[in-house]
């Protein structure tokens, strides 16, 4: 369901101008500190121990390819994609989520949001990611017992309407990891803006994600956060359909991946211009005839090419989502089959407490 930002009349806007300037100054200061905190990130990228921070908890976003920073939906879980996507329309909303991920991994989360004055909103959430049990062995091959691995993420989000069409927000995340006898702690933040033109049914989003660093290491090695710059555009097509293009991994151009060659896995260090270009993009389309029902479908070329060394199939790279809303309750599902050996299902349950109280 698309929405319009809270109207800010010119006289009222003048009254809150000073507070907006103060808020903007604080955001800029936080941005500068966190940005320089990410300055040690390697230019060639690579896997991060904190890649779980990029796993979406929204079934809508999962159906839209896993990343979407511009689509204006009445979905509180969009706070993790772009903190500027939540606002007054999410007052007293509760979201619960469960994901059946690869293997024996199971993820669960909850998020609650409320208004903060007439032009702001906040949300708080927690996510628990359990990767199942593993068998441990010493370097000499002797069995040392079973162990578990899990991550916990606690989030706090605040957004503010700067003008009738422009909103900004910040999402702060504390991540605790416990793998066997090792543990680590990291602090990260996302900064985002969103612009919405109701006359042309057009929205644009820009986010700096996972700025920050690791405060407690597993051992001596410092693990970088998956810092990223993401932007996207969503355009209504004049009917019940809308189309989104999202660009991600904008901190680096080359995105290497492995593929099979003569029975061996070979690293494709430079896939070439066009492959690199499309590995940065996600294309999604949504059918939303009313605020009671939606279906979305997306294609992520990076997901497809990343599974080149696995048993990928025709559906690799595609994802599908859908949801219904009955009175104050909503249910959403997202599904993907990146390769034959793994499928992923994400379930969301939502409740609008404001509607229940009416």
Characterize the structure shown.
The protein is mainly beta. The protein has six helices and 16 strands. The strands form two sheets. It has a 14-stranded antiparallel barrel. A two-stranded antiparallel sheet has the order 10-11. The protein starts with 9 loop residues before the first helix and ends with a helix. Mean pLDDT is 84; it is low at 1-21 and 23-45.
What's the total helix number? 6
Average residue-wise pLDDT: 84
Q: How many β-strand stretches? A: 16
Approximate shape: globular
Radius of gyration using CA atoms only: 21 Å
Q: What characterizes the major β-sheet?
A: 14 strands, antiparallel, barrel
Uncertain stretches of 5 or more adjacent residues: 1-21, 23-45
The span between the termini is 20 Å
| Helical fraction | 10-25%
Q: Order of helices and strands, N to C? A: HHHEEEEEEEEEEEHEEHEEEH
């Amino acid at each position: 369901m698309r929405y319009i930002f809270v109207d800010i009349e010119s006289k009222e806007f003048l009254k809150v101008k000073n507070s907006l300037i103060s808020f903007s100054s604080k955001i800029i200061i936080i941005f500068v500190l966190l940005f320089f905190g990410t300055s040690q990130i390697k230019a060639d990228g690579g896997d991060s121990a904190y890649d779980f921070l990029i796993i979406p908890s929204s079934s809508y976003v999962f159906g839209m390819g896993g990343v979407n920073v511009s689509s204006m939906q009445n979905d509180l879980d969009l706070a993790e994609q772009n903190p500027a996507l939540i606002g007054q329309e999410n007052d007293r909303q509760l979201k619960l989520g469960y994901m059946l991920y690869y293997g024996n991994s199971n993820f669960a989360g909850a998020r609650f949001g409320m208004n903060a004055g007439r032009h702001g909103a906040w949300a708080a959430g927690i996510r628990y990611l359990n990767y199942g049990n593993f068998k441990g062995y010493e370097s000499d091959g002797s069995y040392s017992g079973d162990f578990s691995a899990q991550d916990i993420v606690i989030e706090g989000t605040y957004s503010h309407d700067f003008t009738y069409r422009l909103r900004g927000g910040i999402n702060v995340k504390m991540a605790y990891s416990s793998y066997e006898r090792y543990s680590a702690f990291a602090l990260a933040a996302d900064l985002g803006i969103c612009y919405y033109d109701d006359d042309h049914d057009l929205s644009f989003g820009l986010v700096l994600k996972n700025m920050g660093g690791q405060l407690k290491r597993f051992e001596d090695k410092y693990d970088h956060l998956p810092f990223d710059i993401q932007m996207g555009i969503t355009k209504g097509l004049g009917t019940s359909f809308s189309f989104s293009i999202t660009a991600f991994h904008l901190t680096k151009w080359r995105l290497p991946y492995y593929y099979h060659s003569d029975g061996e896995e070979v690293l494709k260090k430079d896939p070439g211009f066009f492959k690199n270009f499309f590995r940065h993009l996600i294309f999604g389309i949504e059918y939303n005839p009313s605020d009671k029902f939606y279906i979305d479908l997306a294609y992520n070329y990076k997901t497809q090419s990343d599974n080149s060394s696995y048993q990928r199939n025709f559906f690799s790279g595609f994802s599908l989502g859908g949801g219904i809303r009955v009175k104050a309750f909503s249910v959403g599902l997202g599904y993907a089959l990146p390769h034959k050996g793994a499928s992923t299902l994400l379930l969301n349950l939502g409740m609008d407490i404001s509607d229940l109280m009416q």
